[in-house]
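User: Reviewer 2 asked us to show a designed sequence for the structure in our supplementary figure. I'm pasting the structure tokens here. Could you produce the per-position amino acids so we can include them in the response letter?
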């Protein structure tokens, strides 16, 4: 009986690992000549095929996103990326990305 429970736990654990979203998220500074100051872009790169971005939250929802959702709610193939731009004056410390394969939070503290 114990072997069956252990086997079940191993199978369930490996199933959850296979559904973990594989993304690379980075933040880049750029000079916004219209505003006359530096700002940031968030780049989300897919590390596997068919990752549908369903939502992006920056700094626990305390940083509004200037990019229209229709521009970043896309399905990415391996190596493709999408850019999300927060409003000017926001310092990106955390990005939470919801996809068809799960949700993951990335920290930049």
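Assistant: Here is a per-position design you can include in the supplement:
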């Amino acid at each position: 009986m114990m072997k069956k429970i252990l086997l079940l736990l191993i199978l369930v654990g490996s199933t959850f690992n296979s559904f973990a979203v594989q993304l690379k998220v980075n933040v880049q500074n750029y000079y916004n000549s219209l505003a006359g100051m530096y700002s940031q872009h968030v780049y989300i790169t897919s590390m596997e095929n068919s990752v549908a971005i369903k939502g992006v939250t920056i700094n626990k929802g305390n940083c509004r996103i200037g990019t229209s959702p229709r521009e970043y709610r896309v399905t990415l193939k391996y190596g493709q990326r999408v850019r999300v731009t927060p409003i000017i004056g926001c310092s990106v410390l955390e990005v939470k990305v919801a996809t068809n394969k799960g949700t993951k939070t990335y920290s930049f503290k």
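For the response letter, you might also mention the following. The beta strands are 23-32, 37-46, 51-58, 75-76, 81-84, 94-99, 102-107. The chain has a mean pLDDT of 86.
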